[in-house]
UniProtKB/TrEMBL annotation:
GO CC annotation: plasma membrane
Ranges in coiled-coil conformation: none
Organism: Desulfocurvibacter africanus PCS
Transmembrane segments: 12-31, 74-95, 107-127, 155-180, 201-223, 263-286
Keyword tags: Cell membrane, Membrane, Transmembrane, Transmembrane helix, Transport
Name of one Pfam family that matches: BPD_transp_1
GO BP terms in the entry: transmembrane transport
Compartment(s) where it occurs, according to its Swiss-Prot or TrEMBL record: Cell membrane
Membrane topology: Multi-pass membrane protein
Domain of life assignment: Bacteria
Protein's name in the database: Carbohydrate ABC transporter membrane protein 1, CUT1 family
Residue intervals of the ABC transmembrane type-1 domain: 70-282
Length: 293
């Protein structure tokens, strides 16, 4: 290897070093520490942490709150992921068409994305507030009885799902819109000459071409479904009776409210395990159906 080739090799590693240092310091080291802490019982009153082996994992299987929170998170993901992706695709198709006021329509769809999480939660808190909330005023005008949307176990999680879909759909729409604008118009013209219907054109040509974008959006939607915590602070704080609590919020409560960092680390490993499983499915199975141009 010549001197200049060696220097290029060294320069490449020097350019990578800052990013690698940040990744190791804020990703790999915390992940290793979390794995180690999951085998310890957090010391109380200044006492050192006690090694308990798999005791935290045994307690995990007996923790009724964890099982309920895990079920909530799976239901939350099952609701938000398909709804937000489907709605984003429909919105992108609408704003990509030549409609009057197209710019304003795009802006209205994207506005929820740029709003802070806490602001979004407060907006919807006004909608769901019993008696004088906007939703209850409309129901009262139509003659329906009042409903405590966030205070009922049967409706609290549904309300959280609605807020998440409203927040994420506009963000995902941007990616679909960019992908639609990259579809060559000649494909649509060729489909029309062949006598293909509009439904057939979108099903056989447009949607397959959107699969790379769909995979990207699916990964982001899955991550969002398991890192939801901001809205819960304002809307329900996990209540009533943990009916709307999600896994990350439960980790926060255990680790920082009850100061049980060992059990919190165990719950974090479960969360990482679900995200890892989702990644295997997405990149090992779904990606095989993706055709990159």
């Amino acid at each position: 290897m010549t001197y200049f080739a060696k220097m290029r090799h060294v320069n490449a590693w020097l350019f990578l070093l800052p990013a690698m240092a940040l990744i190791v310091a804020f990703t790999h080291v915390p992940a290793v520490n979390t794995f180690i802490n999951s085998f310890f019982l957090d010391g109380r009153g200044g006492m050192p942490a006690e090694f308990v082996g798999l005791e935290n994992f045994r307690y995990l299987l007996e923790d009724e709150v964890f099982l309920k929170v895990l079920r909530n998170n799976l239901l939350f993901a099952s609701g938000t992921i398909p709804l937000s992706i489907s709605l984003a695709m429909v919105m992108a198709l609408l704003v990509n068409a030549k409609l009057p006021g197209q710019a304003w329509l795009r802006l209205s769809y994207f506005v929820p994305t740029v709003l802070p999480m806490i602001a979004v939660a407060n907006i919807w808190l006004f909608f769901f507030t019993p008696e004088y909330g906007l939703l209850e005023q409309v129901r009262s005008f139509l003659g329906f009885s009042g409903v405590n949307w966030l205070g009922s176990e049967s409706t609290a999680l549904i309300c959280i799902i609605a807020v998440a879909v409203w927040k994420d759909a506009g963000f995902f729409m941007i990616f679909y819109l960019a992908a639609l604008q990259q579809v060559p118009p000649s494909l649509g013209e060729a489909a029309m000459l062949e006598g293909a219907s509009r439904f057939c054109y979108y099903r056989r040509i447009v949607f397959p071409l959107l699969m790379p974008t769909t995979l990207f959006v699916l990964v982001n939607a899955t991550i969002n479904a398991f890192r939801m915590v901001d809205h819960l602070f304002v809307l329900t704080q996990g209540g009533p009776n943990n009916a709307s609590s999600l896994l990350l919020y439960y980790i926060y409560e255990v680790s920082f409210k009850y100061w049980d960092t060992g059990y919190g680390a165990t719950l974090t490993l479960v969360l990482l395990g679900f995200l890892g499983l989702a990644s295997i499915i997405q990149f090992g199975v779904i990606e095989k159906r993706v055709h990159y141009r």
